[in-house]
Every structure is written in C-alpha cells, then in structure tokens.
User: What shape does this take?
Amino acid sequence: MNMEAKNLRDLTIEELNEKHRQYKEELFNLRFQNAIGQLQNTGRIKAVKKTIARVLTVVREKQMAGEQSAGRR
Assistant: This one.
C-alpha cells in the first residue's frame, strides 16, 4: 500500500516513525525474498523505497515547522 504525502501529513511524528519502521521491515523482507528468488513483483521494492522517502520528507517538514514556530516565540 503506497501512502501519498497528503495522507502522511495528517499523521503525528510518532505515527510517521512507526510507518517508517514498518516500511523498512517490509523492504528488508522484499530484498530477502528477491535474494532467494521468491519475489514475483520486483517493482514493489522501488515503490517501498519511494514511500520511505516520502515518510522521511514529511517527518523533516514537520521538524522544520516545529523549529520555526519555536524560534518565533
């Protein structure tokens, strides 16, 4: 399941960190399956990597927004 950035932005940083952990685990499993020749859909690896990048991008955006709001006080 690919998550779009707009859906990810509705989550908290803790939820995003959990999503990141889940996708990293899925990526590990996909790579393992690929290594032993059981993976049918190799394109899924690329999709999961892109989703991980989206999650990390949204986490960073939220961190930057938090730093900016803390700096304005």
Remarks:
- The domain at 5-71 is CATH 1.10.287.310 (Helix Hairpins).
- DSSP finds three helices and no strands in the chain.
- The chain has a mean pLDDT of 93.
- The two ends are 40 Å apart (CA to CA).
